[in-house]
Amino acid sequence: MSEPTILRTQVGIIGGGPSGLLLSHLLRLSGIDNTVLELRDREYTVARVRAGVLEHDAVDLLTSAGLGERIAREGLKHQGIYLQFAGERHHVDFSELIDRDIWVYGQQEVMKDLIAAHDAAGTPARYEISDAQPQDLLTDAPSIRYTENGEKFELRCDFVVGADGFHGVARPSIPADQSAVHEREYHFAWLGILAHVAPSTDELIYSLHERGFAMHSMRSNKVSRLYLQVEPDDDIENWSDDRIWDELDIRLRVPGWQLERGEIFEKSITPMRSFVSEPMSYGRMHLVGDAAHIVPPTGAKGLNQAIADVALLHNGLVDHFRSGNSAGLEAYSATSVERVWKTQYFSTYMTRMLHRFHGTDDAEFDYQVQLGQLRQLISSRHAMAALAELYTGLPMPKLH
């Protein structure tokens, strides 16, 4: 068997999604050599329909890294959200409460911006690699072995970063007795659609209805994104376009408002789960994003937490390579995990407040408690300000 071809870089990044590409971009701007390895092809990484809301600080960070031009031009700046329950809709005005805002800008668009920046710099990811495996993580000379176009390679580096998502190879490289996993499966899922129709709302609507949760979001002024709470074992084939629109109309309806319908060009059912694996570091390998944690999408935190991970890890790597100061890298896992649990708290809070927990003896009691919680929330400026503070995002590290 032939020996692998040896390559060299400072930081080897497994995963060419938003976490991996953003970290690579930031490191390049800081003069740190790196290589991104991605299992899928380039088109697949852009086609995945994922998150659509960017926090206040996330937009500032992307803009400071030269990635904000299209966000400013094509993104939708929102100053709040609507909470709907008991047939009434209430506005939570982030801008008025705490002078912060959010942007609706899909993860697909963030990916397009990142890929364009890498193409312009001549630093694209290596796509369609296979058999990737981190090696020697507890030494000062870790590496990643992989296959590309039938040829075997060994990428030797100073650090390995696992940015390859929940099903990737990085996290399983940490011995089971060296990590702790915390997980929750929810007994419901989201049926999500994309439709060619102008949004029927100026800002996101979160609706608790006796039949289940519904949400009206958007991707642009011409494309709407909407969700329904369904059973986790439901089949998308059970949901015709007309049935979806009819159910959305029932759960989102308020007097004097009309849900506009259009052509549905994508629909899917996504299970809901919470997941945290800690620590997020093992020797010379550090995890970012979905490789280490997953949140239910109700709080719009998945992509934003990944961006915060990347910013923190970037700063630690910059300090290490520029001055030999490894304090940031040594603190990376503990600092990120602490923030992750705050994010999990908010995502769980939103999920429990806005979904029906059908099928239990306490389902009706729980529903009345949720209505009481929402009534208390919208009647208290302090409560709404606390929600606004968490929704618009915890502080993100400033780039070094």
Give keywords:
FAD/NAD(P)-binding domain; alpha+beta; 11 helices; 8-stranded mixed β-sheet; 400 residues; 2 domains
How would the blueprint of this fold be written?
Layout: E1 5-8, E2 11-14, H1 18-29, E3 34-37, H2 42-47, E4 53-54, H3 56-64, H4 69-74, E5 76-78, E6 80-85, E7 88-93, H5 94-98, E8 102-104, H6 107-121, E9 129-135, E10 143-148, E11 151-156, E12 159-162, E13 180-196, E14 205-209, E15 212-218, E16 223-230, H7 241-252, E17 263-278, E18 281-282, E19 285-287, E20 293-294, H8 302-323, H9 327-354, H10 363-379, H11 381-392
Parallel strand pairs: 1-11, 2-3, 2-12, 6-14, 12-19
Antiparallel strand pairs: 4-8, 5-8, 6-7, 9-10, 10-11, 13-16, 13-17, 14-15, 15-16, 17-20, 18-19
Helix pairs in contact: 1-6, 1-8, 8-9, 10-11
Could you characterize what this model shows?
The protein is α+β, with helices and mostly antiparallel strands and 400 residues long. The chain has two domains: 238 residues, FAD/NAD(P)-binding domain; 119 residues, D-Amino Acid Oxidase, Chain A, domain 2. Helix content is 36%, strand content 29%. The chain contains eleven helices and 20 strands. The protein has an eight-stranded mixed β-sheet. Helix 1 packs parallel to helix 6, helix 8 runs antiparallel to helix 9 and helix 10 packs across helix 11. The radius of gyration is 22 Å and the shape is globular. It starts with a strand and ends in an 8-residue tail after the last helix.
